[in-house]
Amino acid sequence: MKKKFILMGLALGLHSAYAQETISPAGPQSKPVFLFGGTIHIGNGKVIENGSIVFDKGKIIAIGTLVPPASASVTTIHLEGKHVYPGIIVPDSDLGLIEFESVRATIDAREVGEMNPSVRSLIAYNTDSKVINTLRSNGILLAQITPKGGIISGTSSVVQLDAWNWEDAAYKTDNGLHFFMPRQSGGGRRGPNGAEAPKTALDQVEGVRTFFREAKAYLQESKHTATNLKFEAMRPLFKKDQKLFIHCDLVKEMLIAIDFAKEFDLDVTIVGGADSWQIADLLKQANISVILNQPHSLPIMQDDDVDQPYKTAAQLQKAGVLYCLSNEGFWQQRNLGFEAGTAATYGLTKEEALSAVTINAAKILGIDKQTGTLEVGKDANITVSDGDLLDMKSSVIIHAFIQGREINLDNKQKQLSEKYHKKYGL
Predict the structure, then answer these.
(1) How confident is the prediction for the chain on average, in pLDDT?
(2) Residue 272's CB: how many other CB atoms inside 10 A?
(3) What totals of helices (H) and strands (E) does the chain contain, helices first?
(4) pTM for this model (two decimals)
């Protein structure tokens, strides 16, 4: 009987092994690649018809209307009728930090305590997450991995989505500190801290202000009687090597964010920004950028237009505010390109909408010198689609490259689809 159970266990184990994905990170780019004949969307508003891109050793070395070389040392891919784009970038993501929201053991996005500037989300990033591949197959190649717990939740990092481990994945390390502002009165969506009573929320904001003042005073001292790890973690922020990402939606919360930027002379980005259209001129004057979260949602206030979330991007664009798009929930961030497509039907042009998920995001995350557009000298983070990348009906990604490496576009959902197509003869 014991032998029988052992054999059954081995059989189940083998079945599980073959049922899992066999997707490994791509190796380094081995020779130049020539993408020929596609419509190239640069990402900054420019489009090249029947254009070509050449990249080698992970970098773009030429772009334009080029003739493919007759050489076996160059891989030439013909893309007539196809569309070429920069890889989409997802800000404010808990991708790789949560696998199943209903299973506590797979959630690693939060830390105990309210003030945790020393927490680093990067070291918790799980490159084996099955969710990652579902984003890549929709043209998303980079993500900002963001901690969510407490009021000061820690630092985020930007990762590329084809790696063996978090060290390989790191694209820009510890690029920003995150402040989840306690909800002020006035309704709206709940953040990680829930809805707070007005007095309590104001007291908590004042507590954060005091924490920042004490940290700044500590860092100005030449010697310390004791090392304060939380204050030491604030050093890059005050040196402007990091941004302060303030998560808030309401006008009164964003006014507090503007005040923080002024008092502490910080580089601030608002995350959420549902009501940002109401104070777009103030945000422009204060040089504060916005990550618009959850574009596919109901308006935050009852008397707003029902389609206000769709229009906000165009209103910020008109006011000259630097903004990009994001999406709450790691499981739906694969749809970010399609949400940019919605914004393109509510006031943005198609190329402006593309910029909202590529170069604008790169600027806000501090990686625009490396990526965000298809330009000479930048990383070859490239997606190729059969149709319009921002259109759910026609977007089918057929090639994707991260730093010149062509990545595998398979995922668990594709495998299950193929499995049941075979089973039912579809």
Answers:
(1) 89
(2) 28
(3) 13, 16
(4) 0.90
- Output Rg (C-alpha) for the chain, integer angstroms: 23
Helix axes 198-220, 251-264, angle to 10 degrees: 10
**Residue keyed to tokens 């790696």:** 163
In the chain, CATH 2.30.40.10 sits at 20-87+373-426
Which pLDDT tens digit goes with each residue over 23-69? 889 999 999 999 999 999 999 999 999 999 999 999 999 999 888 77
- Predicted pLDDT at 22: 66
Are 249 and 188 a contacting pair, CB within 8 Å?
yes
Give dist(CA 233, CA 152) in Å, integer. Answer: 11
How many residues does this entry show for the chain? 426
Residue 321 CA to residue 282 CA, distance in Å, equals 9
CA distances from 245 to 49, 92, 94, 205 (A): 38, 9, 15, 15
State yes or no: pLDDT of 15 exceeds 60: no
For residue 43, what are the CA distances in angstroms to 115, 389, 390?
38, 12, 13
In which residue ranges of the chain is CATH 3.20.20.140 found? 88-371
| Structure letter (DSSP) for residue 317 | H
pLDDT, mean of residues 165-170 = 96
Dist. CA 134–CA 413, nearest whole Å:
8
Structure tokens at 392: 């759910």
Q: What b/e string do you get for 386-422 counting C-beta neighbours within 10 Å, with b at 16 or more?
A: eebbbeeeebebebbbbbbbbbbbebeeebeeeeeee
Q: How many CB atoms lie within 10 A of CB 224?
A: 11
Helix (H) or strand (E) holding 283: helix 280-285
Pull the structure tokens for residue 338: 């399609």
What is the CATH number assigned to the segment(s) 20-87+373-426?
A: 2.30.40.10
By percentage, how much of the chain surpasses pLDDT 70?
91
